[in-house]
Sequence to fold (169 residues):
Amino acid sequence: MGSAYTQFGCAAAAAADDKRWETFLIAKHSQVQQQRRGGGAERGEEATQKILELTNGVGVDAALECVGTGESMATAFSIARVGSVVGAIGAPHGVVVPIDTVIFRNVGLRGGVSPVRRYIPELLDDVLEGRIHPGLVFDFTTDLDGFKEAYDAMVERRAIKSLLKIGTI
Fold:
């Protein structure tokens, strides 16, 4: 197997489908799970076993943790192969970095915020040309009057992400 990476979370599902990498996705939403190989597994032991099975026990070259929970971070480290990197984006909560894994398995950790506006100029052409599809995660659309229903749909897992259309475009 060539290079492989794993993404966590529905925001990660909107990432570019780079053919140079074997991509796995771990998510709670069944709609998101179907978008990449590795789908069907949530975080935790089930996801670890599935990803290790798909990589012949080696693990992935990079795990992109975009959820921010302790469970998703632990899963990212458990599927990272020796010498790989775990990337964490956003505001983590309840996360413990397994320092033994970092040191003894030589797994790097990189992290930072996700300043979306900084990447718009770089990614806009890819979106407009159809090379990446950020709208895949929006599966519930309403106007501003329906904002509570949009929020409830996400909380109740009836929607991955809700899109509020305001005014006319």
Notes: Residues 133-165 form one domain.
